[in-house]
């Protein structure tokens, strides 16, 4: 993997396996964080903030999916 100054990830050769490992590791980290947040009481401000952030991410993902679907149908 080569990271340019622009932050763009360039893949060469067999780098896809490393990228897959990175994605799996990031997913496991997110899952562990989610478990820690879910163990907090519902009245905890951190848990409320995490719920709001998750809702925003879900909305953004839905918008991106809708745009991609619309462009593919054209």
Key descriptive features of the protein:
disordered N terminus; flat; 74 residues; mainly alpha
How far the N terminus sits from the C terminus, by CA atoms, comes to 34 Å
What is the CA-atom radius of gyration, in angstroms? 17 Å
How many H/I helical runs? 2
Largest sheet: 2 strands, antiparallel
Q: What is the number of domains? A: 2
Succession of helices and strands: EEHH
Poorly predicted runs of 5 or more residues: 1-6
Query: What's the mean pLDDT score?
Result: 75
Q: What sort of overall outline do the alpha carbons produce when their principal axes are compared?
A: flat
Instruction: Give the neighbour order of strands across the main sheet.
Output: 1-2
Instruction: State which percent range the strand residues make up.
Output: 5-15%
Helix proportion of residues, in percent?
A: over 70%
Q: How many extended strands?
A: 2
Q: Helix/strand-derived class?
A: mainly alpha
Could you explain how this protein is built, in words?
Helices cover 70% and strands 5% of the residues. By secondary structure, the chain is mainly α. It has 2 domains: 1-39; 42-74. Strands 1-2 form a two-stranded antiparallel ribbon. The protein is flat, with a radius of gyration of 17 Å.
């Amino acid at each position: 993997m080569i990271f340019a100054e622009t932050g763009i990830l360039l893949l060469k050769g067999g780098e896809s396996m490393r990228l897959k490992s990175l994605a799996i590791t990031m997913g496991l980290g997110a899952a562990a964080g989610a478990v820690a947040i879910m163990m907090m009481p519902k009245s905890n401000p951190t848990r409320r903030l995490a719920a709001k952030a998750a809702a925003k991410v879900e909305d953004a993902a839905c918008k991106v999916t809708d745009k991609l679907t619309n462009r593919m149908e054209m």
